[in-house]
Amino acid sequence: MHTIIMPKMGDAMEEGTLVRWLKREGDPVQEGEPIAEIATDKATVEIEAPASGVLRGIRVAEGAVVPVNTPLAYILQEGEELPSETDGKATAPSATPAPAPAEPAAASAPSAAPAPTDGGTRILASPLARKIAAEHGIDLALIKGTGPKGRIVERDVLAYIQAQKAAAPQPAVAPVVAPEPAPAVAAPAAAERVESLNRLRLITAQRTTEAHQTIPHFYLTMEIDMENALALRQQLNQLDESLRISINDLIVKACAVALEKHPVINARYQDGQLVYPNGVHIGIAVAVEQGLLVAVVKHCEGKSLRRIAQEAQALIQKAREGKLLPDEMTGNTFTVSNLGMFGIEQFTAIINPPASAILAVGATKRIPVVQEDGSIVARHRMKVTLSCDHRVIDGAVGAQFLQTLKHILENPLLML
Length: 416
What we know:
Layout: E1 2-5, E2 15-21, E3 28-29, E4 34-39, E5 44-48, E6 53-56, E7 65-67, E8 71-76, H1 127-135, H2 154-167, H3 199-214, E9 217-225, H4 227-239, H5 247-261, E10 268-270, E11 273-275, E12 282-288, E13 291-297, H6 305-320, E14 334-338, E15 357-370, E16 376-389, H7 395-410
Parallel strand pairs: 12-14, 14-15
Antiparallel strand pairs: 1-8, 2-4, 2-7, 3-6, 4-5, 6-8, 9-16, 10-11, 12-13, 15-16
């Protein structure tokens, strides 16, 4: 017998949603065959059958939100029986979908039930729940947990906050005395609208805040001539119309070449030491409807410009469809964030750990440039800003990296 559980698809994942079953109770399954879809904080992924057999004892319904490691169903071999807890049949889900928020008029503050402890005085709560409670000055002892063994999880704290807001007494309205006639009456201000952050935006808010507070950032900006790079891009796209190489593809490849020449930019700070990874893994910031994701192209140091462009396009498409796998969103050693397509000329970006640097790329614009002989010509120029972790990178080292990057992009044959 093999137990199918809600997998942990990342360090920050505490629960997942079972989106739908691809197989039904009693269906035969083959090892490696997709049997269900689950939704994590960032993506929807498929669960594969760990063995061949018959799917039995489905315990979690479609749409249910359950903690990681919760049994979802079982795969039985011939002659095997379900564990006693399932009573030999499929049961109702062990955890139901998170309830919809109550109407404000009916909301009330939760009662101060004693919070579960670990046998001592420490209240059982997830790290994320503790962080949110601390930010709002909430005593965890006032919250009833719905996680495993009564553990307080993120949704419990958020529900408590919403209930407190709804239960707050409205200020009494004093009797209105008829005012003197006024020349004009201002229109009443529209009521404020409050919208809860989705999981992706909430995690992004927490991680960027932590990164900005704990990593000593400094910034270096350089202008790069892009005439030769754009000419090469046009030639390559004319030779192979099936693959459209973007400016961002050129930048990622140039960064990979430059990072090999300046390996400390690719390193990370960890417990008072510098850790040099086993390759150049470049994250690409991708804007999606729910927020911002980073898709990671692994081992860029050994890949051609064409290969990087192919993988980047595939990852970006998967990000927009919500189908990125956890391994495709982690392990970045450097990050590229490009807002040039929006006409942004220059900006600074927050470092995305575990990387020690992120390159903010602005728009490529045709501007007048003074040549060495004093003549003025129109050239395509682009500004980039490197955000550096000062624990790893000194100003001179970061400047040398940008000089190398500039040299590569202005002489793009070095990338081929």
